[in-house]
């Protein structure tokens, strides 16, 4: 039996975002990517889902109303 560490990958709006570091939590990664993608700051995180040899997490925009 062989074991190995699966690499994390993040998706947001159909864009695949590589993990900045496999040691960071999804919340820490979301905070770092919020500099480039401000909508991620309030996104919910789903996953992980195993796809091939990757752990895929998805950021989904929070739906709400202004006002």
What does this structure look like?
This protein has one domain. 12% of the residues lie in helices and 37% in strands. It has one helix at residues 26-33, and strands spanning 7-12, 15-18, 44-51, 54-60. A hairpin with a 2-residue loop joins strand 3 and strand 4.
- Principal-axes shape call: elongated
Strand arrangement across the biggest beta sheet: 2-1-4-3
Strand content: 35-45%
Return the structural class: mainly beta
Q: What is the end-to-end distance?
A: 56 Å
Poorly predicted spans: none
Residues in helices, as a percent range: 10-25%
Task: Describe the sheet with the most strands.
Answer: 4 strands, mixed
Q: What is the number of beta strands?
A: 4
Which tags fit this structure?
about 70 residues, 4-stranded mixed beta sheet, 4 strands, single chain, about 10% helix, mainly beta
In short:
The chain has 67 residues and is mainly beta. 12% of the residues lie in helices and 37% in strands.
Strand and helix layout:
Blueprint: E1 7-12, E2 15-18, H1 26-33, E3 44-51, E4 54-60
């Amino acid at each position: 039996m062989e074991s190995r560490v699966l690499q994390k990958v993040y998706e947001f709006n159909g864009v695949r975002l590589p993990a900045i570091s496999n040691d960071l939590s999804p919340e820490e990664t979301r905070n770092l990517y919020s500099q480039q993608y401000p909508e991620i700051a309030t996104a919910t995180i789903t996953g992980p889902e195993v796809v091939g040899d990757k752990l895929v997490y998805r950021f989904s925009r929070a739906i709400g109303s202004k006002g």
